[in-house]
Design brief:
The protein has 8 helices and 10 strands. By secondary structure, it is of the alpha/beta class. The chain has one domain: 3-Layer(aba) Sandwich (Rossmann fold), CATH 3.40.50.300. The strands form 2 sheets. The protein has a 6-stranded mixed β-sheet with strand order 6-7-8-3-9-10, sandwiched between helices. Helix 2 crosses helix 3 and helix 2 packs parallel to helix 4.
C-alpha cells in the first residue's frame, strides 16, 4: 500500500522573545493511502503545528513532509481542512459556502456539475433542504456538517481535521462521528484527525498516534481493531466492546506517560513482528518508542 502522508525526522520550533520554543523533535510517521489516522497527546504538544506542516502552511526547521511522495513546500489544492470553528461566510448560502473551494481550485466541472456535487454531499450529511439557508439559521452541528462538505467538495487526496467536533455537545458530536463514517464510505481520502477525545479517536480511526510532551515525537502507535467485518457500518455500541475498553485504557496510560504522571507499566500490544526497532524512521503499528528514546525527547520538567 502506498504512503499518502510521510513525515521524516521533522523538527520545528517557534521563535519567541525569550528564545526558540521547541515543539516537534525528530518526528517520523507514515500514513497509508486511504487510512484514517488520529493524533492525540498532551495540550500544547504540537498537534496543530503538525497539521499546518502537512497542509503546507508552515515549513519545518528540519526534516521533510511528503504528500504522495512529493515534498510539501506550499499549500496544496489536494488537501482539505476542517476546524473546530466551521468559519462559514454569513453572506453566502450553505450551498454557496460548500461551493467555495470549487471556485478557487482549478477544475473542469460545469456550474451544474459543481452544484450537483455540493448538493449530493449536503444530502449525504443530512442537510438536504437547507441549501439556501444562511449559516446563522443552522445549529452548530449542522454548520459543522456543512464545513465537512466544503472540505471535501473538491475531492482532496488528504483531509485534515483539527478538532472539528470539540465544541459540540455530546449527542451532536457522536452523531457526527457516524456521519464521518458515511462520508468515508462514499469518498476516497486519507484522513488526519487531531483530537483530545480518546473515544473519538478509537471510534473513527484505523490507528491512533500518541505524541509525547513538547518537544513531541511519536511515543506510541495503536492499531484500532473493530469487531465484525470491515464493511459493516460501525455503531456507538462498538465503543463498549472489550477490545475498545482495552484500547482506551492503553491510550489513557500513554497520555499519562506523556504528561509525566505515569509509568509505562505493562507492555501495550505489539505487532506480530515484535517491538519496534529504535532505528526505524517511523514507528510501526502497535509499537512503542523504546523508553530510552522517549526519555531523550521528553522535557526535564513534566507538564
Amino acid at each position: 500500500m502506498s504512503v499518502a502522508i510521510s513525515l521524516r525526522h521533522v523538527t520545528h520550533a517557534y521563535r519567541t522573545e525569550t528564545g526558540p520554543l521547541p515543539v516537534l523533535d525528530d518526528l517520523s510517521l507514515d500514513i497509508p493511502e486511504g487510512a484514517f489516522c488520529a493524533v492525540v497527546g498532551p495540550s500544547g504538544c504540537g498537534k496543530s503545528t503538525l497539521t499546518k506542516l502537512i497542509a503546507g502552511l508552515m515549513r519545518p526547521d528540519a526534516g521533510e513532509v511528503l504528500l504522495g511522495g512529493e515534498r510539501v513546500t506550499a499549500p496544496r489544492a489536494t488537501v482539505g481542512m476542517a476546524f473546530q470553528n466551521p468559519v462559514l461566510l454569513e453572506w453566502r448560502s450553505i450551498l454557496d459556502n460548500v461551493l467555495l473551494p470549487l471556485e478557487i481550485v482549478p477544475n473542469r466541472l460545469t456550474r451544474a456539475q459543481r452544484q450537483n456535487r455540493a448538493r449530493d454531499l449536503l444530502a449525504l450529511v443530512g442537510l438536504e433542504g437547507f441549501e439556501d439557508k444562511r449559516p446563522s439559521e443552522l445549529s452548530g452541528g449542522m454548520r459543522q456538517r456543512a464545513s465537512l462538505c466544503r472540505a471535501i467538495v473538491h475531492r482532496p487526496q488528504v483531509l485534515i481535521l483539527d478538532e472539528p467536533f470539540g465544541a459540540l455537545d455530546a449527542f451532536t458530536r457522536e452523531d457526527l462521528w457516524l456521519t464521518m463514517h458515511d462520508l468515508r464510505a462514499q469518498e476516497a481520502f486519507t484522513t488526519l484527525l487531531i483530537t483530545h477525545d480518546l473515544r473519538e479517536s478509537v471510534f473513527l480511526a484505523d490507528e491512533v498516534v500518541v505524541l509525547s510532551d513538547r518537544p513531541a515525537t511519536a511515543q506510541y502507535v495503536l492499531p484500532v481493531t473493530t469487531p465484525g467485518p470491515t464493511s459493516r457500518r460501525r455503531t456507538l455500541d462498538d465503543l463498549y466492546t472489550e477490545a475498545s475498553v482495552r484500547m482506551l485504557a492503553d491510550l489513557r496510560q500513554q497520555i499519562e506517560v506523556a504528561q509525566g504522571r505515569g509509568t509505562p507499566g505493562a507492555s501495550p500490544p505489539v505487532d506480530a513482528d515484535g517491538p519496534a526497532d529504535p532505528h526505524d524512521p517511523a514507528p510501526r503499528a502497535g509499537s512503542r518508542v523504546p523508553p530510552h528514546a522517549r526519555a531523550a525527547a521528553a522535557p526535564e520538567t513534566p507538564a
